[in-house]
Amino acid sequence: MSERFDLIVIGAGSAGLTAAGGAAMFGLKVALVEAGAMGGECLNTGCVPSKALLAAAACAHGARDGARFGVGASPTVTWSGVRTHIAGAIAAIAPNDAQERFEAMGIDVIRTRAHFLDDRTLGVGNRRLTAPRIVIATGSNPAVPAIEGLADVPYLTNETIFSLDVLPDHLVILGGGAVGIEMAQAFRRLGAAVTVIAPHPPLARDDAEAAAVVLRALRDEGVVFETGHQATRIVGQDGKITVTLADGRAITGSHLLVATGRRANIADLDLASAGVEAGDDGIVVDAQRRSANKRIYAIGDCRAGPRLTHVAGYEGSLVALNIALGLPGKVDWRALPHVLYTDPELAQIGLTEAAAREKYGEVDVTRDTFADNDRAVTEGDTRGFLKLIRHRRRVVGVTIVGAHAGDLLLPWTQIITGKATAFALGSAIVAYPSLSEIAKAAAFRAYAPAVFGPWPKRWAGIVARTRRWRA
Ligand SMILES: Cc1cc2nc3c(=O)[nH]c(=O)nc-3n(C[C@H](O)[C@H](O)[C@H](O)COP(=O)(O)OP(=O)(O)OC[C@H]3O[C@@H](n4cnc5c(N)ncnc54)[C@H](O)[C@@H]3O)c2cc1C
Ligand SMILES: NC(=O)c1ccc[n+]([C@@H]2O[C@H](COP(=O)([O-])OP(=O)(O)OC[C@H]3O[C@@H](n4cnc5c(N)ncnc54)[C@H](O)[C@@H]3O)[C@@H](O)[C@H]2O)c1
């Protein structure tokens, strides 16, 4: 016998938790299936530990840098202390994602692996669950490139680097994307030698001028970049790993971090039995995040598209509304933010200058520098700029590189979307993690009683009953 639900969500990361929680708040009978740790990547092996590590690194850097403010100190870094800080940050945030919290919302939380039996039924341990709507939110894994010898050396990924026993002497990083660059600065500031190896220019998807400001800061702090050459062969063991580049040079470090992108976590779901299609970059979805089977949605890292926590959360809310109320809401990426949490931060919302020129041809670009900003001068940090990109007087993108750049994005969200009410702020896409999220949280709290009030719930009940009757 199958157990019947209105909605089953597979995966309790940022995407799945938001979808399940939102649907339950409309009164739907929801099952949430999680094979690993509640909170998924962001809480356990992604945003939270990486930002906590960067904060510890900033502290060490601040101490070293204090002399120019007339403040002297020389930092002593204890790796076990840094790990305690990281564990403390995870533990403090974990209750938001905890099984008990979601069970208190009436959700049946099942801690095992799910796979499709057909397009309405999942095998979940020794249980069979069925629902007229299913959300796949199974996230992604590190994509490990096919480099000779890599599989035979003890390499690290985001899943293992935060639980290292010792601070590396020399961390070699494969990959010049967000993970590689954030980890390069963090480990360098904590005292490791760091070499970044990447075949392409680092931060290639970001505004090139802004990326140059960040990369200059990292070079000034001693990070070595070996770019333009593929790694062709890797040999070694614990404590000594050698990467040979295509030009024949060899780089030896004590540890190797592989940060070369992501692969959707969908291999064991048996998608074919549910009529769900996937390509190389994950499940194929439409703008409502519906898969090739319109009853099954895919959100967050498991589908082709931007892989960020605030995107996962946004898609989770969108499908909760779509499923509970029967709305045809579509994703809107016009004001999509992303932030690189290095020092200086690199923050982007909407289109970069290059993307805007490609899309529109003629664009207006104005820029201001932090050297002309008195607060930046008093803080002793005038690196960076803000670049405003307009097409026919309409703002289509903003790039900010500098201190706290991520928290300077918020007004541009409202300018780009043209939605400036507190209600709109409650559902805006705000970069994670940022202090600006407190504004969104307050706005959401103010409007939640109306959004999840008796009338929307009554309507959601009618939609759910109609689907059950049709099933
Ligand atoms: C080092 C690092 C730092 C990052 N920093 C940031 C940042 O600062 N800001 C930002 O916005 N993004 C950041 N990201 C990206 C962010 O972590 C992801 O985009 C986000 O966590 C994706 O959420 P998700 O819910 O889609 O997937 P996940 O969090 O991966 O959740 C998927 C869940 O599904 C479960 N699952 C998988 N298969 C099954 C199955 N068959 N049955 C049951 N359960 C299953 C998994 O166990 C997992 O818990 C970072 C990523 C990394 C690696
Ligand atoms: N601050 C943030 O928002 C943040 C921080 C970390 C991660 N993330 C997200 O996590 C995801 C994963 O990040 P990531 O950095 O692993 O992926 P990425 O796609 O951002 O970067 C991958 C990098 O690896 C390089 N690369 C590819 N093949 C390589 C090879 N064989 N050898 C060496 N380099 C190679 C690419 O040129 C690129 O620089 C991204 O989607 C990112 O959005 C976000």
From TrEMBL:
<feature type="binding site">
    <location>
        <begin position="138"/>
        <end position="140"/>
    </location>
    <ligand>
        <name>FAD</name>
    </ligand>
</feature>
<keyword id="KW-0547">Nucleotide-binding</keyword>
<feature type="binding site">
    <location>
        <position position="51"/>
    </location>
    <ligand>
        <name>FAD</name>
    </ligand>
</feature>
<dbReference type="GO" id="GO:0016668">
    <property type="term" value="F:oxidoreductase activity, acting on a sulfur group of donors, NAD(P) as acceptor"/>
</dbReference>
<protein>
    <submittedName>
        <fullName>FAD-binding protein</fullName>
    </submittedName>
</protein>
<keyword id="KW-0676">Redox-active center</keyword>
<keyword id="KW-0274">FAD</keyword>
<dbReference type="Pfam" id="PF02852">
    <property type="entry name" value="Pyr_redox_dim"/>
</dbReference>
<dbReference type="Pfam" id="PF07992">
    <property type="entry name" value="Pyr_redox_2"/>
</dbReference>
<dbReference type="InterPro" id="IPR016156">
    <property type="entry name" value="FAD/NAD-linked_Rdtase_dimer_sf"/>
</dbReference>
<feature type="domain" description="Pyridine nucleotide-disulphide oxidoreductase dimerisation">
    <location>
        <begin position="337"/>
        <end position="442"/>
    </location>
</feature>
<dbReference type="InterPro" id="IPR023753">
    <property type="entry name" value="FAD/NAD-binding_dom"/>
</dbReference>
<dbReference type="InterPro" id="IPR012999">
    <property type="entry name" value="Pyr_OxRdtase_I_AS"/>
</dbReference>
<dbReference type="InterPro" id="IPR004099">
    <property type="entry name" value="Pyr_nucl-diS_OxRdtase_dimer"/>
</dbReference>
<feature type="binding site">
    <location>
        <position position="261"/>
    </location>
    <ligand>
        <name>NAD(+)</name>
    </ligand>
</feature>
<keyword id="KW-0520">NAD</keyword>
<dbReference type="InterPro" id="IPR001100">
    <property type="entry name" value="Pyr_nuc-diS_OxRdtase"/>
</dbReference>
<dbReference type="GO" id="GO:0003955">
    <property type="term" value="F:NAD(P)H dehydrogenase (quinone) activity"/>
</dbReference>
<keyword id="KW-0560">Oxidoreductase</keyword>
<keyword id="KW-0285">Flavoprotein</keyword>
<feature type="binding site">
    <location>
        <position position="301"/>
    </location>
    <ligand>
        <name>FAD</name>
    </ligand>
</feature>
<dbReference type="GO" id="GO:0050660">
    <property type="term" value="F:flavin adenine dinucleotide binding"/>
</dbReference>
<feature type="disulfide bond" description="Redox-active">
    <location>
        <begin position="42"/>
        <end position="47"/>
    </location>
</feature>
<feature type="binding site">
    <location>
        <begin position="175"/>
        <end position="182"/>
    </location>
    <ligand>
        <name>NAD(+)</name>
    </ligand>
</feature>
<comment type="similarity">
    <text>Belongs to the class-I pyridine nucleotide-disulfide oxidoreductase family.</text>
</comment>
<keyword id="KW-0521">NADP</keyword>
<dbReference type="InterPro" id="IPR036188">
    <property type="entry name" value="FAD/NAD-bd_sf"/>
</dbReference>
<keyword id="KW-1015">Disulfide bond</keyword>
<feature type="domain" description="FAD/NAD(P)-binding">
    <location>
        <begin position="5"/>
        <end position="316"/>
    </location>
</feature>
